[in-house]
Amino acid sequence: MKKIGLMFTVAAVLVPVAAHGNTITSCPDTSLADVLGSTCTIGDKTFTFASSLVSVPGSQPFALLDASGIGFTTDATNSESPGFTLDVDLQVGPSSQLSEADFALEYSVSITDLHSGALIIGTTLTATGLSATGGLANVLAVNLLSQSCQPSNPLCPSVAAFAEAKGDGLLIPSSTVPLGAGTVSAFGEAAIDLGAANVTGSPPSITTLTSAKIQFNEILTPEPSSLLLLGAGMFNVVANLRRKLFD
Prior knowledge:
It contains two helices and 14 strands. By secondary structure, it is mainly beta.
């Protein structure tokens, strides 16, 4: 398997608006099939999901997972890093008769209230139930996030938080990466790629992955009006102090 490159076939609506003036609703806890092609919110962020899953770029599509069998759970308990979890509960290996399985979920994400001062500054991916044993077993769960720029621009900044396991004992269950100085909107791709290849003289290859949680980290920046008020307040403090010193 190869690490994937960012795809830009997601809906190019970075700040989605509801059709016909309807209010965009919160993303439901449901199957991934029910979320595909929709626009909804998690915490203070608005997501637009592609209408279908695609195979992971750079990998042969042995078994594209069915979206109806993948759970989608939202989590906005941490206001500074809301996100969603993809529940796959998947095993690849002898008993499952699968030598490889993969999927990629493409989406756009944006700050819902552009006046809030919030900026997306990175992403965190955490895999649970991640394991690989025997042979050439490996698991790669990747979340890519790119700032909003033209897809044709080769300098388009992007980052990849990933989790990985290999049959030789390597295990990286979680990672967090920053996204430059921050952005109000970005494209992303959540991709999961599992493979198992038996090697003569080695135990059967088995890979497992229970779920992958993707969080979108943010920072709050003061609005210009707030900075002006702060500046005016500091000016008054200094003026009062000068009067007291020289009276």
